[in-house]
Amino acid sequence: MKISKEEVSYVAKLARLELSVEETEDMAGQLDRILNYVDKLNELDTENVVPTTHAISVNNAFRVDEVKKSLSQEEALRNGPLQNGEAFVVPRVI
Amino acid sequence: MDFYALTIHQLNDLLQKKEVSSVEVTNSVLTRIEQVEDKVGAYITIDREKALVQAAAADKLMGEGGGGALCGIPLALKDLICTKGMRTTCGSKILESFVPPYDATVVEKLKEAGAVIIGKVSMDEFAMGSSNENCAFGVPRNPWNHDYICGGSSGGSAAAVAADECIAAVGSDTGGSIRQPASHCGVVGLKPTYGRISRFGLVAYASSLDQLGPITKDVRDCALMLKVMSGYDPKDSTSVKQEVPDYAGALTEGLRGLKVGIPAEYFEEGLDPEVEKAVRNGIDLMQQAGAEIVDVSLPHTAYGVAAYYIIAPAEASSNLARYDGIRYGFRDMDADDLADLYRKSRSQGFGDEVKRRIMIGTYALSSGYYDAYYKKALQVRTLIVEDFKAAFEKCDVMVSPVTPAPAWRLGEKVDDPLSVYLSDILTISANLAGVPGISVPCGFSGSGLPIGLQMQAAHFEEEKLLRAAFNLEKSLGIVGQRTTAL
Predict the structure, then answer these.
(1) Closest approach of B169 to chain A, Cα-based (Å)
(2) Which alpha helices (DSSP H) does B400-461 contain, by range?
(3) Is position B328 within any domain?
(4) pTM over 0.80, yes/no
(5) How many Å apart are CA B440 and CA B418, to the nearest integer?
(6) What residue of B is the nearest CA neighbor of A13?
(7) ipTM for the complex shown
(8) Which of B157, B279, B281, B397 shows the greatest Cβ crowding within 10 Å of its Cβ?
(9) CATH code at position A13
(10) Residue range B246-305, pLDDT digits in tens
(11) Comparing C-alpha atoms, which of B247, B382, B223 is closest to residue B303?
(12) Which residues of B224-248 are buried (b: 16+ CB within 10 A; e: fewer)?
């Protein structure tokens, strides 16, 4: 096995996902098959190959730091499932 | 006259001659939707009233002698393109009631050109899928045969165009999501060069691979749409500062002098014989029309799927971290603390395939596995990019199948995610290399399912692609062939 149920639970924790016992088992099986397939990449020697993150050369795009019109507070809050007109409401943190 | 069945360029002519109004065209499309939508299921949201208001405005503008390239033309948008005031779900429960406060740049451009937005069409959740079966709001069916998938992830876009439920549509393509459903539905679909069209307002899946593009009834419409949608946008730093050519102008030239490359690796074992026959027939026709056929090789094709299914999930796991149940989207109201709120909202809001890809991506980026998986995949991506560079030194466009087989039956692969991933083998490399690709209808299987032919070109060579596709379309003479299954 490339990935154990324990590892699946750990990764789910990192990804902020909650998986039931059954989902964890299914996920372990599916991820195992996928990771085994992906192992195919190791057939290739890439020791001196530079990684590509973007196929088109992407440069940092600088711009003048000017204030421009943006969303109003009301517009920015409108999609919040729980908000009080001034801020998003979250469970107590501290 | 059934205006819904016409193309953009046909309607442009009629609208200009005042032989029809945009309100009449829009009503014709809306009536068509009423007649066939229960069989197709392409739409998630339809806004009749707003569409008719936009149509009336287009008519007024044209009456005054104004109007842009798409004035009065009813379009459908894949439901991951932000539309101000119109809900944008991404096919996900987590965004079921999300109403964007702004328009995507591409929507601004389409509206500026006078287009009428009919509504938002179905897709695999967050564009993750190849059959449109991963949608939280029902599964669209192939307009040519309702027992088959329409393809994905832009399945709703392709099905709506094939079923004449819009005149043209916009889709997005991260690993084949425009070209594959276009192929399965018998319509034209173009994934432009990475950076050609602004991604601002496109809900992100894998940002280094995502690209918007048109899905249309013919190649000329594709050229018209691409022209409107393209261009640099300061709001997307990966959009490219490069002039937008008059793509429709490229359609006047024939195929003489065009070098057409045939990548051997795209015709290997496992290719459906009917697909191969239809594509080879297309190649023969291109040769007869004056194209020079040359053999080319993309030696790392077999590694594309493996590299993609590390890179795309890795980017997705990062992009989808924003769905926290706080600022927008679904929220579990019973969570005890912040971590619980994240976990519960995300676990109930995301579907299985999205969870799977977040898990693969998180795993590949996690400590101890980064080099073995993510870095390795990026290095293999470099090899694939180099394959394409070498191939395009020998040819102008490459011709191949879009998919190894025609559409599969609904439900056939739902329990086997890996087999679905493998079906992307012929489209995925274009995204890794950032090159443009188009799917053009080139025939039908024995059971009446459409087959598409793929053409790929070097970066920003969309004109060559459209020119080749247009000539092939003419030689094949199957333009305007419509489904009779509705």
Answers:
(1) 26
(2) 417-422, 428-433
(3) no
(4) yes
(5) 27
(6) B343
(7) 0.96
(8) B157
(9) 1.10.20.60
(10) 999 999 999 999 999 999 999 998 899 999 999 999 999 999 999 999 999 999 999 999
(11) B382
(12) bbbbbbbbebeebbbbbeeeebebb
